[in-house]
Fold this sequence. Notes:
Strand content: 35-45%
Structural class: alpha+beta
Order of helices and strands: EEHEEEHEEEEHEEHHEEEHEEE
Number of helices: 6
Amino acid sequence: MTTVLRIAAFSDGSRGGNPAGVWIGDVLPDASTMQAIAAEVGFSETAFAAPEGEAWRVRYFSPLMEVPFCGHATIALGAALAHRYGDRSFGLHLNDAVISVSGQRDGSTIAAALQSPPTRSAPLDASLRDELLDLFGYTASDLDPKLLPAKIHGGADHAVLALRSRDALARMTYQFERGRALMDKAGLVTIALVTVETARLFHVRNAFAAGGVVEDPATGAAAAAFAGYLRDIGWPHGGAIDIVQGEDMGARSLIRAEIGEIAGGSIRVSGTARFMDDA
């Protein structure tokens, strides 16, 4: 029986981060088995990887469903592969994209970076915006006019709402089943709530009811999508942004996203990962 590694991705040194399960074997199990394993692990996502030529075939499962791409589980996988096979880059074949992840060991943590799938963004439909505001108990006056609500994509679809104040972000709450139904209806994997500290530093919370989790302490896929959105609107990002997530959950996580100039291009998302048990 293959052991599921438990790795916290986008950690703040030896603390924080978003726990992910990582299963590495010779052949991927069937989908129902992977779904059952992910549900038993109970983390927001578990990555399953098996060799495929010179690369790795990868699928991601939350406790409730398969997702097309998960950033923090990819960072965790990169750490696990580097721990097992040495510091280098690994090609990954996802359901709908071909990407890569690299890992470099550094004492008790491993630095990892992924190249995301292509990104895109579009204005959020006004009716969906209003439904999301109502879900979280916000009003239009809570929104930051510098960053308009949008539907963003970086391997999966997310919605982003920018709030005027850090206090508004801190009081985020919602009814789980209502949020899950709304996200399922709109085809959203997560809902990202963000505040701007500086042009290159953001505080973020991500609701993930669609996957059976109230909140994600670090969301690499949404970070890639958000970075792509900033490029689309001409935000003065200076080539990279930093995201602080999970503070209000007591699991501070740090994400860096490097933004190239090509519209729709891949985003490099990086951070550190720590093993939560003996590897």
